[in-house]
Amino acid sequence: MPPAENKQGAGFQAPTGEIEVSMRPSRMSRSAACLMACLASVGTSAATGQQVYATCAACHGARAEGNPGLGAPALAGQQVAYLQRQLLNFRTGLRGSHKDDTYGAQMRAASQVALPDEKAIAAVATYIAALPRTDVKPAGKFDARNGNNLYQGKCGAGHGGQAEGNEALSAPRLAGLDAAYIKRQHRNFGKGLRGAQPQDRYGKQMALMATTLGSERELDDVIGYIQAFEAAR
To answer: Angle of helix 80-92 relative to helix 118-129, nearest 10 degrees?
Structure first.
């Protein structure tokens, strides 16, 4: 999320979708507690990225490794520009404003309190991007060959042959993201919870791309391939 530009959306993001996940009361309470931690007071816009990130660590982890149990994705090693764009999108309501996007709404509320201006956004994005990248082991069964074929045919041109992202195309890194988060975002794009607003140019691109995977099985194969490839490096 470049500080001076609100290049909205998700970029060319690889298929990320989710079968709808209902939040059990216990999970909701944990998420609410996490949100309250993120809403704790932060310093002024002059605070360092590390100081700003301290309000995010309760959900995303001390090293931005993510917490699937709270629906919080790994952020470490992601592109600075992408992080800035998404935080600005949350803060301005281009993301997280749909009534069915529960996790997005939490992040929107947190960003509006914890990120007072674009200087704070730039500082925390730069700090997060410099953290060691997170590796995720594939969960469940998947067809690696089919996943490779689908990924390279539908996603690789945007997100890179190794899911490392492509900053020139504003496409984020997908390697290191947990399966539940990828599925949820794929679902959000497909159902108009994300990328539906006219100003969200990159999100609209991904909303179109999300329709190219025909089944959940295909999505599982793509996710498994991405995670297995990353784990083997």
So the answer is: 140
- The owner of tokens 């490392």 is 164
Least confident of 26-30, 32-36, 38-42, 77-81: 38-42
Which conformational region is residue 10 in: left (phi greater than 0), alpha (psi within -120 to 50 degrees), or beta?
Answer: alpha
What three-state secondary structure class fits 219? helix
CATH number of the domain to which 44 belongs: 1.10.760.10
| pTM of the predicted protein model | 0.80
Range of the domain at 86: 1-233
Helices (H), strands (E): how many in the chain? 11, 0
- pLDDT of 27 > 70? The answer is no
Task: Report the DSSP beta bridge partners of residue 166.
Answer: 171
Partners of 171 in the β-ladder? 166
Give dist(CA 111, CA 108) in Å, integer: 5
For 27, 76, 88, 112, the CA distances from 119, given in Å and listed in that order, are 33, 19, 11, 13
Residue with tokens 């990120």: 115
For residue 136, give Cα distances in angstroms to 52, 56, 127, 202, 232.
Answer: 26, 20, 21, 26, 10
- Residue 11 and residue 86 in contact, taking contact as beta carbons nearer than 8 Å: no
Q: What's the number of domains the chain is made of?
A: 1
